[in-house]
């Protein structure tokens, strides 16, 4: 990478608000609060870039990231149909947990999230683990054009893996990939030359029980 990368976590969805597992496949719409968060993200990026900046715009193929991207793109005057998608940007797969209430899963098998770091402490049945996300993100990074700044709208866990790959972080366990700290829904980080700054801090939830 040479040009900066802007990594954004999508805005709040109805599943986030209802504390249900989304994972990679569920396509869930934004709440009214989420729409307001996406508007604020677009305003922040418009203020940062101004007009006429050549950008590469990427998003996960999930409905929630595309809805967030559509609002941001309108602020930037960027055609939504030019937003590129890649399955490597999808959220961690949660397998059999997808669509289920977080509380019901915990009632069945006990804690599944580290409360301090907001990370899964066990793999979901049929789900993914952090190194698998890093592997697909590596393939996506190879598709970036190093000449132009890029915006990517992705997910909570996926963004933490991506930021960890680019700026470093603390592995969840020995031999795991580095993972960056969590951030609220609607947050945007600017990453360049191995360092990151928070361009915009969202108002959404930051903990796993409201942000998976």
Automatic annotation (TrEMBL):
<dbReference type="InterPro" id="IPR050275">
    <property type="entry name" value="PGM_Phosphatase"/>
</dbReference>
<dbReference type="InterPro" id="IPR029033">
    <property type="entry name" value="His_PPase_superfam"/>
</dbReference>
<dbReference type="Pfam" id="PF00300">
    <property type="entry name" value="His_Phos_1"/>
</dbReference>
<protein>
    <submittedName>
        <fullName>Histidine phosphatase family protein</fullName>
    </submittedName>
</protein>
<dbReference type="InterPro" id="IPR013078">
    <property type="entry name" value="His_Pase_superF_clade-1"/>
</dbReference>
